[in-house]
Write a structure and sequence with these properties.
By secondary structure, this protein is α/β, with parallel strands linked by helices. It contains 11 helices and 15 strands. The chain is globular and about 60 Å long.
Length: about 325
């Protein structure tokens, strides 16, 4: 198992020698390596069993650093960066050659983000390289929101996990690219689209496609538990699967029943996002055959929650 702690200089040493460290962010935990070292980045792909066609996000701690990695920062990207960085927003920008092709899977854009977690910000301040970091889960499984989640699944393969507590946002960053200066959503996430549209106006949606090479993260069955998860109206579903051993996941707390889980006691979407992945993990570990779940209101972070629930249901 990995060592878990808050030792930034140990994390720095491990990353500097080209190995991996689990790092906390406000969205989910990342599996970090020196983004400028292709050998280190290769370890991310092998450890996660991630296909090499799925590009990584580069994390850094200032706009000055970002400008070293990208050709230019278009006006709307700059407006979003000024408004939301550090925070749960990733921008796709034309890359400079300093970013290895392995990081971007050969694409000419690089995904960049300035995360908001204080421990990871303190770590980045100590490093003279940016960190490539996908979510710290085996490819296709639920993203981790605690150091323990990371240790449970990847602890055997990495030396150290920086422990920054439970992630406060709980779903991955929103990814925005640009098509002729028009912002395009590549992935719904922890920054609500409504907030983004207040700054840059209407954003386009990337068509959902499991074979779209410019957004491999759109693969339908991502973020999936091992158990079968069925989405719908909970009372209908409970009726339909009456004879079977089921667990349920509702948005708001319902009456106490065996294996009845909920995302937010009073129906707060931010709290629901924070709880989503740890509840899915708990459900996945129960001795039941099926997980029955319902969608949440499709607004704010609810859109990202529904996106993850639909992918979790797509087997
Ligand atoms: O919140 C987050 O974004 C977390 C934390 C650790 O920062 N990271 C994360 O990384 O979710 P990952 O690798 O699990 O998801 C990154 C997504 C992938 O679906 C990938 O396809 C997409 O970003 N991506 C990366 N670079 C891209 C690019 N140049 N063009 C299109 N999509 C890209
Ligand atoms: Mg991921």
């Amino acid at each position: 198992m990995a060592q878990i702690g808050t030792d930034i200089s140990l994390a720095k040493d491990i990353l500097t020698r080209g190995d991996l460290v689990g790092i906390p962010t406000e969205t989910v935990y990342g599996l970090a390596a020196n983004a400028l070292n292709p050998d280190a980045v290769t370890k991310i792909f092998t450890t996660k069993e991630r296909p090499s066609f799925d590009p990584l996000i580069v994390h850094t701690d200032s706009l000055t650093n970002v400008s070293e990695f990208v050709q230019e920062i278009p006006v709307k990207a700059k407006q979003l960066a000024d408004q939301f960085w550090p925070g749960p927003l990733t921008l796709l920008l034309q890359k400079k050659s300093i970013i290895p092709d392995l990081v971007t899977s050969g694409l000419d854009t690089v995904a960049v983000r300035i995360p908001r977690h204080p421990l990871t910000q303190a770590l980045l301040a100590q490093l003279d390289f940016p960190l490539a970091a996908p979510s710290a889960n085996p490819f296709g499984y639920i993203s981790p929101t605690t150091a323990k989640h990371v240790n449970d699944q990847l602890g055997g393969e990495i030396d150290y996990i920086l422990d920054g507590g439970s992630c406060t946002i709980g779903v991955e960053s929103t990814i925005i690219g640009f098509n002729n200066d028009i912002p395009v959503v590549y992935r719904l996430g922890g920054m609500a689209i409504e907030e983004i549209e207040k700054v840059v106006g209407k954003v386009d949606k990337m068509p959902h496609s499991s074979s779209n090479p410019s957004a491999p993260g759109m693969l339908a069955s991502h973020y999936a538990p091992k158990k079968k998860l069925i989405l719908g109206n909970l009372s209908d579903l409970k009726n339909k699967y009456k004879g079977q051993d089921v667990a349920t996941l509702s948005f708001i707390k319902e009456k106490d029943q065996r294996h009845a889980y909920f995302l937010s006691e009073l129906g707060d979407l931010n709290e629901a996002a924070q709880n989503l992945f740890s509840k899915l993990r708990e459900l996945d570990d129960l001795p039941v055959d099926l997980i029955l779940a319902e969608l949440v209101p499709d607004e704010g972070l609810g859109r990202a929650i529904n996106d993850r629930l639909k992918r979790a249901a797509a087997l």
